[in-house]
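Hi U.,

Before I forget, here's the chain from the pilot set. I'm dumping it here mostly so it's searchable later in email.
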Amino acid sequence: MPSTADTGRDAFTVLRRGEVAPRWLRHAVSEHWALPDGHQNLTLITVSENATFLLRIDGTPHSVLRVSRPGYVPSAAHIRSELHWVEALAERTDTPVPRAIATRSGDAVCTARDGRGSSWYLVLFMFSPGTILEDDFTDPLPYYRRIGAITAEFQAHSRTWQPPGGFTRFSWELSDMVGPSARWGDWHRATLTPAETRLLESAQAAALDRLEPLQKTPDTWGLIHADLRPSNIMVDADGTLTVIDFDDCGWAWFLYDFAAAFSFVEHLPITPALAREWMRGYAETTPLSEADAQDAVALSMLRRLQMLGWTTTHRSDALPADIWDAQVPGTVAIAERFAQNPLWLLTS
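Structure:
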C-alpha cells in the first residue's frame, strides 16, 4: 500500500517547502530526462497552480521541475503553446527567461502517473540563478521601472509574433477574474463581515462599470504573461532580472499585466510608488493616456478581488505569512481608497 507521500494530489497537500518529492515523481524524472551522473535530490519549492521542485545533482542546483495540477491545464497542447512563446521570447528579447529541457524523446512536456493512477504534466526548466524578488522584498523600488519596461517588451513581441499552428491558451476575461465562475475562486468565500462584503461588492461594480465597455483591439488585448509579479522574478548577483513561470500566460487586456505586478501587496504603503515606477518603465516604449491609467487601476482593483478569491482555493504557505494574513484587511483598505479616488494607486 503506497504511503501518503506517494499518492499524487495528497502528496502535494502534505509536502512542505524543502521536503523530498514523492517516489513516483523522482522515478519519472529519472525515466524521462537524460540527466548528468550524480546523486539527485528533488525537493519542493512551492505549491500553487503547480507544484514546483528544485532538482540538485551532487548538491548543485541543476533544474526546476514544474508539475501541473490536474484539471488546471486542459491539455499538453496548452503547455507546449506556453513554451513556444517562452522560446520565442528567449530568442527575440533581451530579458532572460528559463527554457525547457527536452526529454529523451525530444518533447518538452511529458506525463507521469502517481500512486493512485492520476496523470500529471511535467516540464523541466533550466535553473535560473538568483533570488526570488518576493523573498527579498525589503527594497523593491529600484526594480519596478525595469519590470514595467520588461512588460512592455514582452507585449511588443506578442503584438507582432505569429504563433505556430495549434497554439492554444486560455483567456482572462473579466468573468474569469471575479464572479461565480472565477478561475481561482470567488472572493465571497473569504471570511468577511456583511459590511466588508458590501464594500467589496461596490468596488467590484465600479471597476466593472469602467472596464466592461472596453473594446478588444490589437492595442488593448493580446497574449501576456498575466502574472509578472515579485514571486515570478529572479534577481541575480549583478541585478539582472529573469522572468519565470509563464503558466498563467494567455489572452487578456494588456494592462492586466500592470494589475498583476502588485498582486497581494496593493495595500502596502510603498505600492503607489512601485506603480508609478512601473508606469515610467512601461511608458518608455508604450505611452499611456489618463484613460489608460484609470483602466489600469480598475483592473488592479479586480485583480485584488481575484486574488482574495485565490486565497480560498490555495495553500497559505504559497505566500509569505504576513502577506497572507493581510489579504482581507488589505483588500478592504484598498477598496475604500478606490471608492474615494479611482486613480489612487497612481496618485497617492
